[in-house]
UniProtKB/TrEMBL annotation, chain A:
The chain crosses the membrane at residues 12-31, 37-54, 61-78, 90-112, 139-158, 187-209, 221-249, 255-276. Belongs to the binding-protein-dependent transport system permease family. LivHM subfamily. The keyword Glycoprotein does not apply. InterPro entries: ABC_transp_permease, BCAA_transport_permease. GO terms for cellular component: plasma membrane. This is Branched-chain amino acid ABC transporter permease. The keyword DNA-binding does not apply. Keywords: Amino-acid transport, Cell membrane, Membrane, Transmembrane, Transmembrane helix, Transport.
TrEMBL record, chain B:
It is found in: Cell membrane. The lineage of its organism: Bacteria, Bacillati, Bacillota, Bacilli, Bacillales. This is Branched-chain amino acid ABC transporter permease. It comes from Paenisporosarcina antarctica. The chain crosses the membrane at residues 6-25, 57-77, 84-108, 114-131, 157-174, 208-233, 245-267, 287-310. InterPro entries: ABC_transp_permease, LivM-like. Its main location: membrane. It is a multi-pass membrane protein. Keywords: Cell membrane, Membrane, Transmembrane, Transmembrane helix. It comes from the Bacteria. GO terms for molecular function: branched-chain amino acid transmembrane transporter activity.
Length: 286, 332
């Protein structure tokens, strides 16, 4: 029983990290119809910059803020230079963002060196609670809380506020929103930056969780993120939350019970979902 | 038109003859190996172009078929004996396996929309990579294994000629393929899938054919690659191989067969020189950055690639009133 509890909490925490990554992807794909393969690069930059800020300031809050700042800057640059020329063309989006991904990953090695870097957990999240036989690592609980919080905030903004209304309307009919006097290009820029911030935030939270960061982590997690987005139904926010939890949990259970399958299980889930339900678990309504 | 084609053919024939004479004139081992490598990746890039350039589908799982070819040849030459007969048999076996798998994969995946298809091929090739890593008795897992190539190939020049013959034959066959009525239907699918469907063509049917052809040719490239290294490991199945093929295709020019060959030349040569430069200037150790930037610039400024851009300029000069029917920047 305690084993199951531990595995579940592990799985949930991993799922939440993947969700933060997938949330940015969902936002960018679902709203702007842009396939961003450089998303993992933004994630890795978030991780590296937070570790750098942490070593500089010894403050976890400042480290997270630093990562968010990195996300804003990189998101701005990416949208202006990379995404803008290829709006509305999926194939070119795939190609150009893949190229940018290579640049981002290699730039990490140039700036921070090619080696792995250790990431510390802040003192107040280190350690664990023990309830009976169940050991609950504090940092994992923190990640789970942040994950649900982010889901709630983004969902609220999209569904209940005027900004969300403009964004959703802009997706349905760009010209109409434009004629109403709203600069849709700016709106898309902000949405992209928001997606980039979610990615870098995910990276920043990931760093103390895995304890070690390296430049290639971007691509590894980006693939997980894509799997989650595809399983959940591209562009569906609740869908990617559910899919992220599903992927996190199965990953955690499989790693314990059927280790030989654990590497392939995500791919298997995605292949099965796509074959039987190509639109994903949740359908996106217009 | 005919004269243009004739000139093209004469030009190509001259180049091929020069390449055939090359190993007899010079002794440069580096160049022989480098050119062999370029030819092998030309075959891979051409096969990728059948998908990307002619049918307009982006596959992220192309390394899978490359890997099938490489592993089939590696395993057979290792287990049976390294003779020419077994070598040819292993290539044929690899092609058959690749053909069957690409047929099944194509049937399963090609009904999906472009980005879902890309994701699913990524997932399937990921599965394949895991399978290869786990099936240690056959593949020795991550470490890979060395094997002996047929005795004749000890001479690099002989292998060079064999690969060159493979390249020329593949080029001729693929050109026949894309110029056939079937090839034209593929282009129609690329240009407008809906319209092709409403004309009564079974689009899925033709896409699967394209995917099988691409898979089979890619497995040939993989087999030759394995022989050139006399070693095979899981790196032949990684995303890097697919990305290389993708980059070669778009730099050379999508929707042409010469383009991928030129692209392969450009990429392999610049990889060679940039990693050579890295010994002197540390900045070039991160030469992948230059590739990333090249990638971005090509997509923005030369979406048609080297050959496509030249061709467009040629058409514009020749017949200014003809609007170039095919523009890659739209939706390929």
């Amino acid at each position: 029983m305690e084993l199951l509890m531990n595995l579940t909490i592990n799985g949930l925490a991993t799922g939440m990290l993947i969700f933060l990554l997938a949330a940015g992807l969902t936002l960018i794909f679902g709203l702007m119809d842009v396939l961003n393969f450089a998303h993992g690069g933004l994630f890795a930059w978030g991780a590296f910059s937070s570790v750098w800020f942490y070593s500089l300031t010894e403050s976890f809050v400042l480290a997270i803020l630093g990562a968010i700042l990195t996300g804003i800057i990189l998101g701005f640059i990416t949208e202006k230079l990379i995404i803008k020329p290829v709006y509305g063309n999926h194939v070119q989006q795939i190609l150009i963002t893949l190229g940018f991904m290579l640049v981002l990953t290699e730039m990490l090695k140039v700036v921070f060196g090619p080696n792995q870097i250790a990431a510390k957990t802040p003192a107040y999240f280190a350690g664990s609670w023990e309830i009976g036989d169940v050991i609950i690592i504090k940092y994992r609980v923190f990640i789970i809380v942040v994950g649900f919080l982010v889901f709630g905030i983004v969902q609220y903004i999209l569904k209940k506020t005027k900004v969300g209304l403009i964004v959703r309307a802009g997706v349905m009919n760009k010209e109409m929103v434009q004629t109403l006097g709203i600069n849709i290009n700016n709106v898309f820029l902000y949405v992209f930056i928001a997606g980039a911030v979610l990615a870098s935030l995910g990276g920043a939270l990931m760093a103390p969780y895995s304890g070690v960061i390296y430049a290639e982590m971007g691509m590894e997690f980006a693939i997980l993120g894509f799997i989650v987005v595809v399983i959940g139904g591209m562009g569906s926010f609740p869908g990617s939350l559910l899919a992220a939890i599903l992927v996190g949990l199965t990953g955690s259970y499989m790693a314990y019970y059927v280790p030989s399958l654990s590497l392939a299980v995500n791919m298997l889930i995605m292949a099965i979902v796509l074959i039987f339900r190509p639109q994903g678990l949740f359908r996106v309504k217009g | 038109m005919t004269t243009k084609y004739q000139w093209n053919n004469i030009f190509l024939t001259i180049i091929v003859i020069v390449l055939f004479i090359f190993p007899f004139v010079t002794d440069s081992r580096t160049w022989t190996i480098l050119l062999t490598q370029i030819f092998i990746f030309s075959i891979l890039a051409m096969s990728y172009d059948i998908l990307l350039g002619y049918t307009g589908i982006v596959s992220f799982g192309h390394a899978m078929f490359f890997g099938i070819g490489a592993y089939t040849t590696g395993v057979m030459l290792d287990r049976v004996e390294p003779t020419i007969g077994v070598f040819i048999l292993s290539i044929v076996t690899g092609m058959i396996i690749a053909g069957i798998i690409s047929f099944i994969v194509g049937l399963l995946t090609l009904r999906l929309k472009s980005h879902f298809y890309a994701m699913l091929t990524l997932a399937l090739s990921g599965l394949f990579l895991v399978l290869t890593e786990k099936w240690r008795s056959l593949t020795s897992g991550n470490d890979g294994f060395t094997f002996r190539a047929p005795e004749v190939f000890k001479d690099r020049a002989v292998f060079y000629l064999v690969v060159l013959v493979c390249l020329v034959v593949t080029y001729i066959l693929l050109r026949r393929f894309v110029q056939s009525p079937l090839g034209h239907i593929l282009v129609a699918v690329r240009e407008n899938e809906q319209r092709t469907k409403s004309l009564g063509f079974k689009v899925l049917h033709y896409k699967v054919i394209a995917s099988v052809v691409a898979g089979v040719v890619a497995s040939l490239a993989g087999a030759l690659y394995a022989i050139s290294l006399r070693f095979v490991n899981t790196s032949v199945l990684t995303m890097d191989i697919t990305l290389d093929a993708l980059l070669m295709t778009i730099i050379g020019g999508v929707g042409t067969l010469i383009g991928p060959i030129i692209g392969a030349g450009v990429i392999e040569l610049s990889q060679h020189y940039l990693s050579g430069l890295a010994k002197e200037y540390p900045i070039f150790e991160r030469w992948i950055i230059f590739f990333g930037i090249l990638y971005i610039l090509v997509v923005i400024f030369f979406p048609a690639g080297i050959v496509g851009t030249i061709r467009q300029a040629y058409y514009k000069r020749k017949k200014p009133h003809v609007v170039e029917g095919r523009s890659n920047s739209e939706d390929l």
